[in-house]
């Protein structure tokens, strides 16, 4: 051996030259030349040990195989035997053939005293740079370059103290650069070099952040450091948490890491993904994040409840009443489906906002169940029923060409015998054909034979009569349907003259006349039934069509055509509206009742020729009560049937 290296602390200098993360790189054979004048130690492993296997003098040439971290793997001859070893990269340089031909001057070898003074001076200079916030990166490099010189101090105590100082001030500079991870490594090297010296040097540290980093390094050295504990919570919760790309769970969650800096990613459907870089300084860190929504919660309700909810064509698996979390901003389509009801759908926009968006719907009944029936084809209850109306109390009024002419039934379906003095007040009617009731309970009956309208009070007593057979303005020819609007004005279907006549409330004074025979909008082909909806629009049916007008007779729209298919009509005889303005048509020629939306879209139908329950023959009038029960008056079966909606 040429020269034995000075003693160094086993643990203290184990990482003396291990300043960078260990990595393995492969290369072709490389020529190296020793550039450190005191000589370059070669170790058995890529880290300094108590005693090098050899110290190579300045300008020694070597063949290197690979570089492992900061060390080159080389082959040297020790006592005549070729031995593999490791030499630090700071002590050599890579050379090529041209470099080998140049003369390299020999440097002077410094004494131990000179070397010690140089190390102390360099540490002091760089210490001042750090405290004055100088070039910290250059300061770190300057301090690192001292380590080969420190290794050549022969006095073990001076060597340890110098190494501790270099590690301390290198760590200090790195901490000022916010590079906590590397600073902790330097401080840990300090403890491994000389624990007692390190403790003494850092005993009165005033900087709380550096004191904390030194504390972490000490715990790592003595094996008591379990890592940084991080508690992460989000609003809303159940967000996916990723740390350095790896899923660690859902919020709220606690994870532990050995790293001083981690990248936290937060992901939750319907919310903006977030990324944060966490510089960990304390044993426990609590983080709470309010996520930015990319949508709003949607609360959906229906009457009746229990409808399946579909959003943008996808079954949400929910039923009304329900709330759908974080519906993205923008356009959507909502569909509600429930057995025996018409599918409800709406296209809507979710605007930006924080509060819950609410969507509610009243589902429309599509199918009905036959219920109670009055009368039978034997004629015992009704002789020849003609018209039907329900007042605000739920009482029924039926026009019949029998002895009583007009009969009233209470909401309990019982006939009110005394009303109209057991039919005495209606005996003057020759051929009653239509009936309506105003808000005060006044009753109006058309007589198709003598072309008149008769008014009766709420007890059924006669009040007045107007009209006469003919085609003039104040005359009527075969008046059939009759209706009363919200102002108690009266509308009469003058079927024989193919027109509608509007009278002032209860007086018989003509206010408006419109219509004539023909197939065009606003014209009629033997009109029969008439009703008024909640918008005070007038709805009239004729042979195969439904037309809608304003209260002043201005045409609005029409739907229907001759036929027996869905939405087609064959001899419409009666019409009514429910509270939602759905339209019901007594389709006499097809022996059924058809239901339409207020705009004429077909909803469904029920009935069919026959006299059994749910069947009908010659439906002539239809009415709906407040509960949604549909009542159908059948001329040929001499009865009235109730059709019940689904129970809510």
Q: What can you tell me about this protein's structure?
A:
By secondary structure, the chain is mainly beta. It is built from eight helices and 45 strands. Strands 1, 2, 3, 4, 5, 6, 7 and 8 form an eight-stranded antiparallel β-sheet that branches. The N and C termini lie far apart (102 Å). The N terminus is likely disordered.
How would you briefly describe this protein structure?
This protein is mostly beta strands and 648 residues long.
Layout of secondary structure:
Elements: E1 24-25, E2 30-34, E3 40-43, E4 54-56, E5 61-68, E6 71-78, E7 81-88, E8 92-94, H1 97-101, H2 112-131, H3 136-144, H4 147-151, H5 156-176, H6 180-193, H7 195-201, H8 208-222, E9 228-235, E10 240-243, E11 246-250, E12 253-257, E13 261-267, E14 274-279, E15 284-290, E16 295-303, E17 308-311, E18 314-319, E19 322-328, E20 330-337, E21 344-350, E22 357-362, E23 369-375, E24 385-390, E25 396-400, E26 406-409, E27 432-437, E28 443-447, E29 452-456, E30 462-466, E31 479-484, E32 490-494, E33 499-503, E34 510-514, E35 529-532, E36 538-541, E37 546-549, E38 555-559, E39 572-577, E40 583-587, E41 592-596, E42 602-607, E43 619-624, E44 630-634, E45 639-644
Parallel strand pairs: 9-15, 16-22
Antiparallel strand pairs: 1-5, 2-5, 2-8, 3-4, 3-7, 5-6, 6-7, 9-12, 10-11, 10-13, 13-14, 16-19, 17-18, 17-20, 20-21, 23-45, 24-25, 25-26, 27-28, 28-29, 29-30, 31-32, 32-33, 33-34, 35-36, 36-37, 37-38, 39-40, 40-41, 41-42, 43-44, 44-45
Helix pairs in contact: 2-3, 2-5, 3-5, 5-6, 6-7, 6-8
């Amino acid at each position: 051996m040429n020269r034995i290296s000075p003693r160094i602390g086993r643990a203290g200098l184990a990482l003396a030259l291990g300043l960078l993360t260990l990595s393995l790189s492969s290369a072709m054979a490389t020529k190296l030349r020793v550039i450190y004048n005191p000589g370059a130690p070669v170790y058995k492993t890529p880290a300094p040990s108590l005693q090098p296997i050899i110290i190579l003098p300045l300008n020694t040439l070597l063949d290197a195989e690979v570089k492992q971290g900061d060390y080159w793997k080389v082959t040297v001859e020790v006592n005549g035997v070729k031995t593999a070893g490791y030499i630090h990269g700071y002590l050599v340089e890579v050379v090529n053939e041209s470099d080998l031909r140049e003369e390299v001057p020999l440097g002077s070898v410094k004494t131990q005293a000179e070397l010690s003074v140089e190390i102390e001076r360099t540490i002091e200079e760089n210490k001042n740079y750090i405290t004055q916030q100088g070039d910290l990166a250059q300061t770190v490099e300057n301090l690192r370059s001292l380590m080969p010189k420190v290794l050549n101090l022969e006095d073990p105590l001076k060597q340890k103290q110098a190494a501790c100082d270099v590690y301390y001030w290198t760590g200090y500079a790195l901490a000022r650069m916010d590079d906590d991870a590397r600073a902790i490594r330097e401080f840990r090297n300090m403890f491994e070099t000389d624990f007692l010296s390190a403790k003494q040097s850092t005993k009165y540290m005033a900087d709380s952040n550096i004191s904390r980093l030194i504390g972490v390094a000490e715990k790592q050295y003595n094996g008591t450091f379990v890592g940084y504990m991080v508690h992460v919570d989000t609003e809303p919760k159940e967000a996916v948490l990723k740390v350095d790309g790896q899923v660690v769970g859902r919020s709220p969650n606690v994870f532990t890491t050995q790293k001083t800096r981690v990248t936290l990613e937060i992901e939750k459907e319907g919310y903006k993904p977030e990324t944060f870089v966490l510089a960990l300084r304390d044993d426990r860190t609590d983080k709470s994040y309010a996520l930015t929504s990319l949508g709003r919660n949607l609360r959906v309700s229906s009457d009746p409840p229990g409808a399946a909810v579909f959003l943008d064509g996808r079954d949400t698996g929910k039923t009304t009443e329900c709330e759908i979390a974080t519906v993205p901003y923008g356009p959507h389509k909502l569909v509600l489906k429930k057995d025996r009801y018409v599918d409800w759908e709406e296209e809507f926009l979710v605007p930006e906002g924080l509060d819950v968006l609410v969507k509610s719907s009243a589902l429309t009944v599509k199918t009905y169940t036959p219920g109670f029936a009055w009368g039978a084809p034997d004629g015992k209850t009704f002789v020849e029923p003609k018209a039907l109306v329900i007042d605000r109390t739920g009482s029924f009024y039926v026009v019949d060409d029998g002895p009583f002419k007009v009969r009233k039934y209470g909401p309990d379906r019982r006939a009110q015998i005394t009303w109209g003095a057991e039919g005495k007040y209606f005996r003057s009617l020759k051929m009653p054909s239509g009936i309506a009731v105003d808000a005060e309970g006044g009753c109006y009956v058309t007589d198709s034979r003598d072309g008149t309208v008769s008014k009766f009070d709420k007890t059924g007593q006669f009040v007045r009569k107007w009209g006469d057979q003919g085609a003039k303005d104040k005359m009527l020819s075969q008046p059939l349907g009759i209706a009363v609007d919200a102002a108690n004005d009266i509308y009469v279907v003058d079927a024989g003259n193919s027109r509608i006549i509007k009278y002032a409330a209860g007086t018989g004074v003509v206010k408006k006349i419109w219509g004539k025979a023909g197939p065009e909008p606003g014209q009629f082909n033997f009109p029969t039934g008439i009703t008024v909806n909640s918008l005070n629009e007038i709805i009239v049916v004729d042979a195969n069509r439904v037309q809608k007008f304003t209260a002043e007779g201005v045409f609005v729209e029409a739907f229907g055509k001759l036929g027996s298919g869905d939405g087609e009509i064959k001899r419409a005889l009666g019409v009514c509206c429910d509270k939602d303005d759905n339209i019901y048509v007594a389709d006499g020629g097809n022996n059924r009742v058809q239901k339409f939306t207020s705009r004429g879209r077909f909803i469904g139908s029920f009935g069919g020729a026959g006299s059994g329950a749910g069947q009908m023959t010659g439906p002539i009038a239809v009415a709906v009560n407040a509960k949604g029960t549909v009542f159908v008056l059948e001329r040929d079966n001499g009865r009235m049937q109730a059709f019940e909606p689904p129970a809510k």
